[in-house]
Amino acid sequence: TMGVVERIREIGVLRAIGMSRRQAMRMVVVEASLLGIVGVILGSLAGLGAGAALLQLAGGLPHPGGLPWLPIGVAAILGLVLPALASIYPALAAARISIVSSLYFD
Question: Which of 20, 25, 35, 106 has its CB 3.0 to 4.6 Å from that of 91, i.e. a possible disulfide?
């Protein structure tokens, strides 16, 4: 996906047609959060599938202990929180750029 710097012109156009600075910031943070959600889901499925496949190749476990819920939960929380936190600064920067200069940004 494109980062905030590559989308400055798009954000400028949206602001020119009436989007507020707060809405522009919210848009960037929500998009990052959605990417985090998709990453958590796909990463969890891929990790659980790879783990199951490796266990089968290794002959399985004599006494299956279930899923490791704590590491899965910690990874899911980090995968949801970190993208949102990491997008706050670029969202602030995008919202602060003047509409006129963003339309001529190259």
Answer: 25
